[in-house]
Design brief:
Order of helices and strands: HEHEEHEHEEHEHEHEHEHEHHHEEEE
Shape: globular
Strand content: 15-25%
Mean pLDDT: 95
Structural class: alpha/beta
Largest sheet: 9 strands, mixed
Bound molecules: 3,4-dihydroxybenzoic acid
Helix content: 40-55%
Number of helices: 12
Distance between the termini: 37 Å
Radius of gyration: 21 Å
Length: 388
């Protein structure tokens, strides 16, 4: 590094380190949310933004006598943008908490800023296991791919599926999904014939689906990030894989409630595992879905619930810390136990990661619409990625 860059880095660090002092003197507490509101992951941003608006409408804008201000910034799911916006929110806006993070690379790019400025960062969407280890100030309200992948692997083993092929997006959460699915099915006597990957940006499913057809597995296991499921399903049907006797199994990211209603009958019967379904039959979820749809005019998906629960973690944390940020807020986030629209939730105080039920679901048609209908669950599942 040149001397100039050293000086600049030192100045940035000093500004980040000074941020908590400035927060304490204000009567407004600001929460800085960074989401992909445009670009490829825009549905994630739209869902979480809708859930935050609902949370604030239901819970008000006052905590411990202070005014709450939520600032939402669009990073277009470009990690360099996420980092730059996080730095601005901490240094200029003096936010007490950062939140959002539509994809894993955004969360990873922001982790050092959370650490240096001691600002709690609530990850509402990104789901690679290792994210919570990237900073002691990260708390997660979404889920982890090892949780989802182990859930469906267990189901496959118990339901006569022997030979599988895996297909995942070629980055962090995809690597987790591939590894934890493959490790679990092989441990239980199953087989993975081939491991296929497609790029995060602008994937083309045609060549990999041809490989799947040639390999003739009993089932294809798929993880793709939220927003890609409908395009994948269309290709799966167009290439006749559904008719070729290859069963489709997936994490619930693929049968995403945001797109499920429009996926068509190819999705019918797809068994998948995830932490949230808009069809979860609890009173709290029925109210959540009704209120969300009344306000936003679309069905909430698992991203919305990550946003809603993330706001709960921040609000209850701020109530306990009397509006202070930093270590006090972080401490008040750890160990929270509550009922989410997804079901019971715990923020593990040791790992700062989420513990929740992992449901096994099947896509079914009810009143003319497709839903993920839960029929089994692994209760209170910790992240298998942290049990090394
Ligand atoms: C991630 C993004 C998604 O849209 C998703 O469904 C799961 C994980 C991620 O980047 O971590």
């Amino acid at each position: 590094m040149t001397i100039r860059r050293h000086l600049l880095a030192a100045a940035a660090l000093a500004l980040l380190a000074a941020a908590p002092l400035a927060q304490a003197q204000s009567d407004t507490v600001k929460i800085g949310v960074i989401l992909p509101m445009t670009g490829q992951q825009a549905s994630t941003g739209r869902q979480i933004d809708g859930a935050i608006k609902l949370w604030v409408a239901q819970n008000g804008k006052k905590i411990a006598g202070k005014n709450v201000e939520v600032i939402v910034k669009d990073d277009q799911s470009l990690p360099d943008q996420t980092r730059r916006l996080a730095q601005e929110l901490v240094v200029n806006d003096k936010v007490v908490a950062l939140a959002g993070m539509g994809i894993t690379p955004s969360a990873m790019a922001t982790a050092p800023i959370a650490t240096q400025s001691k600002t709690p960062l609530v990850v509402m969407a990104a789901a690679t296991s290792s994210i919570t280890e990237a900073s002691p100030f990260i708390v997660r309200s979404s889920f982890t791919l090892p949780q989802a992948a182990v859930g469906i692997a267990e189901w496959a083993n118990k339901n006569g599926i022997k030979k599988t092929v895996t297909l995942v997006a070629d980055y962090g959460p995809g690597f987790d999904a591939e590894k934890y699915f493959a490790d679990r099915v092989t441990l239980n006597g199953g087989q993975v014939l081939e491991k296929l990957r497609t790029p995060l940006r602008a994937p083309d499913f045609a060549p990999v689906l041809q490989k799947v057809r040639d390999a003739k597995p009993d089932a294809l296991f798929v993880f793709l990030p939220s927003g890609q499921g409908a395009a994948f399903m269309k290709q799966f049907a167009e290439r006749g894989l559904d008719k070729a006797g290859i069963r489709l199994i997936a994490t619930g990211d693929v049968t995403d409630d945001d797109q499920l209603a429009d996926m068509g009958d190819v999705a019918l019967g797809v068994v998948n595992s995830h932490h949230y379904s808009a069809a979860h039959p609890s009173a709290l979820n029925k109210k959540f879905v009704a209120d969300f749809m009344a306000m936003n005019k679309f069905r909430p998906n698992f991203m919305a619930v990550g946003g809603y629960d993330g706001m709960r973690i921040i609000y209850k944390g701020l109530e306990a810390s009397k509006g202070a940020g930093g270590e006090a807020l972080l401490a008040a986030m750890k160990g929270q136990v509550f009922e989410s629209p997804r079901g019971p939730v715990l923020i593990d105080a040791q790992t700062r990661d989420i513990v929740h039920d992992m449901y096994i679901r099947k896509v079914e048609k009810k009143d003319g619409q497709l839903w993920n209908v839960e029929f089994d669950a692994i209760k209170a599942m910790k992240d298998p990625g942290k049990q090394k």
